[in-house]
Amino acid sequence: MQIVKTKTSGGINYKGLLSVPREKSDKIIIHIHGMGGNIIFNNFYTPMHEKYPQNGYSFLVGEHRGSEIIKDFELNNEPILLGNAFERFEDCVEDIQAWINFAVEKGYKKIWLQAHSFGPTKVAYYLNQKNLDNIEGVIWLSPSDMMGLVRYPDVIDQHNELMKEAKELIKSGKGDNLLSNRLWGEYLLSAKTYVNLFEETANTAIFNYGDSSLGWKVINDISVPVLAITGTQDDGIKPVIDPKEAMKLLESELKNSPRVKTVVYEGAEHSFNGFEEQIVNDVLAFISNN
Fold first, then answer.
1. Using H for helix, E for strand and C for coil, what is the string for the chain?
2. pTM as predicted
3. What are the pLDDT digits (tens) for 49-71?
4. How far apart are the C-alpha atoms of 61 and 67, rounded to whole Å?
5. Cα–Cα distance, 223 to 226 (Å, whole number)
């Protein structure tokens, strides 16, 4: 495993962890983590760094604007404060592109995009916005309904309060201020980020299991193979819809994908703890048959 770096077109520097096969390969899996995540602390990273290279695929986990809650990055040799609390969703295109550019510059020609939690929303949006040269397909681990997760009955009141506070702060010129309460009791978000991620017209409305009126256009247009994995106890999906029903719906909406497979692990939670090896095996089986 080695530490690698890339830079966005806007000048932000990111670090990543890259594991490569013993014999040179032109195949790579690039992983995009979820809200407030990072490139180290996911239990499934360990077998991926080991087994993907053993099967001829390099594995890269890269930082992006949504890494950790609040994090110092470098922009054109100057410090900049980013992280999930201050990210703008649409910037994910520039971030993902930076890692794809890195891979292409290193000689990789067959690129798979893998993502977890909020990451699949970013990857789907990226595919909708960019040319698909070199993208072999995508692997979604818990492709979550971001809009649905702030609107189900147990949290809708909190969402309304946070949205009201966020819009008031923005109106008073304090859009970078952090909201007074954490989303789902976990995530600190700035006013501007909350509105960007969760207002009615937000571009994060992609896996719309809970509200069909939001549409499935981004998913309908995806034209590469898709593997989606979740679990029956996945709280990135379960509060909105039964995960098994979610995967059936997702399959039906991937109208333009040449090959689709969905998997639901009995008992698996959002973190997939205890199912790490199973994920790796299922991913390798899917991509090796591409």
1. CEEEEEECCCCEEEEEEEECCCCCCCEEEEEECCCCCCCCCCCCHHHHHHHHHHCCCEEEEECCCCCCCCEEEEECCEEEEECHHHCCHHHHHHHHHHHHHHHHHCCCCEEEEEEECCHHHHHHHHHHHCCCCCEEEEEEECCCCCCHHHCCCCCHHHHHHHHHHHHHHHHCCCCCCECCCCECCCECCEHHHHHHHHCCCCCCCCCCCCCHHHCCHHHHCCCCCEEEEEEEECCCCCCCCCHHHHHHHHHHHCCCCCCEEEEEEEEEECCCCCCHHHHHHHHHHHHHCC
2. 0.95
3. 999 999 999 999 999 999 999 99
4. 11
5. 9
Quote the tokens at residue 66.
Answer: 């949504």
Please check whether residue 262 is in contact with residue 247, taking contact to mean a CB–CB distance below 8 angstroms: yes
What's the one-letter identity of residue 91? D
Residue 260's closest CA among 230, 232, 222, 288? 222
CA 18 vs CA 5, 14, 15, 74: distances in Å: 10, 13, 10, 20
* C-alpha 86 chain-centroid distance: 16
Amino acid identity for residue 83 in this structure: G
Residues 161-201 have pLDDT tens digits of 999 999 999 999 999 999 999 999 899 999 999 999 999 99
Distance of CA 108 to the CA centre of its chain: 21
Give CA–CA dist 206/218, Å, rounded. Answer: 6
